[in-house]
């Protein structure tokens, strides 16, 4: 790590001591962003209750909103406070990502830490506020208490009061899953829609009118806000409970029905950050590094054992019915012979990884109610010689990605973590895809509650001890922890490509990724598994994009591992596959060129090693023209461009595979107009000429 990058360019620190307030007073403490465009104001109401509001260019965007907690066996922490002191500081620094959307990340903010003390009970609490040029964030710190070693939080009553009825993009707060299609509605319509669709899913503690984060909205004047959280550790995930009549939201923590509370923490502790990204243009939401910057620096040190890569896998053939995960159907996919077939294909196509699902015993009883002890993670099926597969892969320059499906029985997995990772270490395997399909065992725990969040974290930290990187499916959402634990390489956390193979509703609609880019992807890398070339999957299902969009996804969606998910035979002889061979996965810098939520997005990324550029644009069900200004390229240099665009007769439903491929020379002073078909896309490789 370059020490100079971590050196603070500007750092100022000063203390402001504020005397005790009478109950009739309202003391305001303000912190502004470096540009002065965004401000957060904190104050106590006459009853001593803490509140805040947020302004953008002096216009109120979050109205007076309350802060506090409901506790078990203690009075609530929500009023009768006085301000003891407020400490301010400013930071302007740069730091380096070991892998990511860009190498250098700028971190520039102003902060105030407000310490509060109750008048009667004398309990103390601090609230940290940070103001960036692209948003704000705050978190609580609960201090030590006399005679109390821990707190049990029933709920956190953090309020976000809007100033108008914006257009919103949301999925319901299903405590077990993020695998929902996004809805586009007014804020005031969320309650009725979620009740109609039955999104409460039968759990008593899941409100019908709550949404997952990142939760993105657009005001009438075009201002975009996205609500999320950062540094989610040893705490319950925050969903947002909607009050449509009062245009307000309140944090709704994912609780434990087994334990009867949301969070239990030893004192003192800090909560995750509550974040609001604020940008005039939708594209700047994607460009923001606010979530990453709210996390602590790398705690793992050198993570060079993981290399960003493209991979193929014995996976899609299970979803399209060609083979199975288990041996019972006599169509077992994870055989030594089949693995070598994929290895040979990868080796000749500039693809460095192979994922093999269904290799280990236990899949015959996968999905049953009692799943404890179903899988072990070191015993292969008889037709899969894992040592021979690893040997053959190394000979061909291919890395094996291990697969561990826990079947949502995390206690079984935890018992075998060290054994499983020692086995991987003995095979010189450095990355694993984990899975948590199903309802969590023990009953009453949920994918997004504190108990499971601690499990996921235990997996990351244990894996790091064995120099293993982890890609989690059925995960907790990404909250920027990849900065602190960079072996947490990617997460599914969305409705992925596999739904296109078998979903009863016909799969993901053409607008899906043009919403995901401005919602789920704001949290961090997502493993969507793009690259389907055979679009008709069954009589009822097909891929709802054009071929050009499937290529563009390698740039639009960020992940340090990107799958070429289709069967090798579906790529053979297809000229468009050249883009997948060429496209990078690890980036020096990223330029978000344009986009509107739910309509389209266009992104260009520069590969770290080669300095080549790759561009991807996707649109929804509407065709549109996109004008690309190539001024992001290095001036005075020439680039050989291969352009993969929709053909004149391309259309996602009727003619998805029609594609134009042309070569031309591109320089930074050029501009070019392209037409994207309905459900279409655009992919361009720009190779720097020597």
Helix proportion: 10-25%
Strand-residue fraction?
Answer: 25-35%
Query: Which regions have little confidence, pLDDT < 50, spanning 5+ residues?
Result: 1-26, 197-205
The top level CATH class name of the largest domain: Mainly Beta
* Distance between the amino and carboxyl termini: 29 Å
Beta-strand segment tally: 37
Description of the structure:
This protein is α+β, with helices and mostly antiparallel strands and 690 residues long. The chain has 2 domains: 3-293, Beta-galactosidase, Chain A, domain 5 (Distorted Sandwich); 309-584, TIM Barrel, CATH 3.20.20. Helices cover 16% and strands 34% of the residues. It is built from 14 helices and 37 strands. The strands form 6 sheets. Strands 1, 7, 8, 9, 10, 13, 14, 16, 17, 21 and 22 form an 11-stranded antiparallel beta sheet that branches. The protein has an 8-stranded antiparallel beta sheet with strand order 2-3-4-5-12-19-18-15, with helices on one face. A 7-stranded parallel beta sheet has the order 28-27-26-25-24-23-29. A hairpin with a 7-residue loop joins strand 7 and strand 8. It is globular and about 75 Å long.
Short description:
The protein is an alpha+beta fold. The protein is 16% helix and 34% strand.
Describe the secondary structure blueprint for this structure.
Blueprint: H1 3-6, E1 10-17, E2 28-32, E3 38-44, E4 50-56, E5 59-66, E6 69-71, E7 81-96, E8 104-118, E9 124-132, E10 135-142, E11 150-156, E12 159-162, E13 167-170, E14 183-186, H2 190-196, E15 210-211, E16 215-218, E17 224-230, E18 238-243, E19 248-253, E20 263-266, E21 269-270, E22 273-279, H3 283-287, H4 290-293, E23 309-314, H5 316-319, H6 336-347, E24 353-356, H7 386-395, E25 399-405, H8 410-426, E26 431-435, H9 450-465, E27 469-472, E28 488-491, H10 499-502, H11 512-516, H12 547-556, E29 561-563, H13 568-571, H14 577-582, E30 587-596, E31 600-607, E32 613-619, E33 624-629, E34 639-646, E35 659-666, E36 671-676, E37 681-688
Parallel strand pairs: 23-24, 23-29, 24-25, 25-26, 26-27, 27-28
Antiparallel strand pairs: 1-7, 2-3, 3-4, 4-5, 5-12, 6-11, 7-8, 8-9, 9-10, 10-21, 10-22, 11-20, 12-19, 13-14, 13-16, 15-18, 16-17, 17-22, 18-19, 30-31, 31-32, 32-37, 33-36, 34-35, 34-37
Helix pairs in contact: 6-7, 8-9
């Amino acid at each position: 790590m370059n020490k100079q990058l971590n050196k603070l360019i500007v750092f100022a620190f000063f203390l402001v001591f504020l005397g005790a307030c009478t109950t009739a007073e309202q003391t305001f403490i303000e912190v502004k962003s470096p540009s002065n465009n965004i401000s957060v104001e904190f104050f106590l109401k006459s009853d001593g209750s803490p509140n805040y509001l947020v302004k953008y260019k002096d216009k109120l965007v979050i109205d007076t909103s309350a802060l506090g907690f409901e506790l078990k066996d203690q009075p609530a922490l929500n009023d009768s406070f006085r301000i003891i002191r407020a400490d301010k500081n400013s930071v302007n620094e740069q730091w380096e990502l070991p892998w990511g959307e860009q190498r250098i990340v700028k971190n520039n903010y102003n902060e105030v830490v407000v310490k509060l003390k109750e008048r009667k009970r004398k309990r103390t609490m601090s609230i940290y506020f940070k103001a960036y040029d692209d948003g704000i964030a705050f978190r609580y710190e609960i201090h030590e208490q006399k005679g109390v070693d821990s707190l049990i939080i029933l709920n956190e009553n953090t309020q976000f009061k809007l100033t108008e009825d914006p257009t919103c993009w949301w999925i319901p707060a299903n405590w077990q899953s993020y695998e929902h299609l996004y809805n586009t509605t007014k804020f005031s319509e969320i309650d009725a829609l979620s009740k109609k669709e039955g999104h409460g899913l039968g759990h008593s503690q899941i409100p019908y009118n709550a949404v997952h984060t990142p939760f993105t909205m657009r005001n009438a004047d075009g201002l975009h806000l996205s609500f999320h959280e950062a540094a989610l550790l040893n705490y319950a995930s925050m969903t947002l409970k909607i009050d449509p009549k009062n245009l307000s939201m309140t944090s709704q923590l994912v609780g434990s029905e087994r334990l009867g509370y949301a969070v239990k923490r030893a004192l003192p502790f800090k909560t995750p950050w509550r974040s609001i990204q604020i940008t005039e243009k939708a594209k700047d939401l994607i460009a923001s590094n606010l979530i990453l910057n709210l996390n602590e620096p790398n705690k793992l040190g050198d993570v060079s054992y993981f290399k960003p890569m493209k991979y193929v896998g014995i996976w899609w053939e299970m979803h399209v019915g060609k083979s199975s995960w288990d041996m019972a159907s006599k169509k077992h996919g994870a055989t030594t012979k089949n693995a070598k077939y994929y290895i040979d294909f990868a080796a000749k196509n500039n693809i460095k990884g192979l994922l093999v699902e269904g290799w280990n015993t236990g899949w015959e009883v996968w999905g049953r109610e009692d799943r404890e002890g179903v899988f072990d993670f070191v015993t292969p099926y008889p037709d899969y010689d894992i040592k021979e597969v690893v040997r053959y892969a190394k000979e061909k320059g291919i890395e094996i990605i291990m697969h561990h499906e826990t079947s949502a029985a995390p206690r079984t997995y935890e018992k075998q973590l060290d054994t499983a990772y020692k086995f991987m270490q003995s095979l010189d395997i450095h990355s694993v895809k984990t899975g948590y399909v199903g309802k969590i065992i023990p009953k009453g725990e949920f994918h997004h509650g504190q108990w499971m969040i601690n499990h996921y974290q235990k997996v990351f930290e244990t894996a790091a001890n064995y120099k293993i990187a982890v890609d989690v499916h059925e995960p907790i959402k990404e909250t920027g922890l990849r900065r602190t634990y960079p072996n947490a390489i990617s997460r599914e956390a969305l409705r992925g490509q596999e739904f296109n193979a078998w979903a009863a509703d016909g799969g993901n609609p053409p607008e899906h990724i043009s919403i995901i880019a401005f919602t789920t992807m704001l949290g961090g890398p997502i493993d969507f598994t793009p690259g389907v070339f055979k679009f008709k999957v069954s009589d009822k299902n097909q891929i709802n994009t054009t071929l050009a969009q499937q290529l563009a996804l390698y740039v639009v969606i960020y992940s340090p591992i990107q799958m070429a998910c289709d069967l090798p035979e579906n790529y053979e002889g297809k000229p468009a596959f050249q883009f997948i061979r060429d496209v990078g996965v690890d980036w020096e810098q990223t330029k978000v060129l344009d986009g509107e939520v739910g309509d389209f997005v266009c992104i260009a990324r520069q590969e770290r090693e080669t300095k080549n550029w790759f561009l991807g644009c996707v649109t929804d069900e509407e065709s549109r023209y996109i004008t690309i200004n190539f001024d992001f390229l290095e001036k005075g240099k020439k680039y050989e461009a291969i352009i993969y665009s929709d053909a004149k007769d391309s259309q996602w439903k009727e003619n998805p595979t029609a594609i134009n491929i042309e070569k031309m020379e591109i320089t930074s002073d050029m501009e070019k107009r392209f037409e994207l078909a309905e459900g279409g896309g655009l992919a361009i490789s720009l190779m720097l000429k020597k």
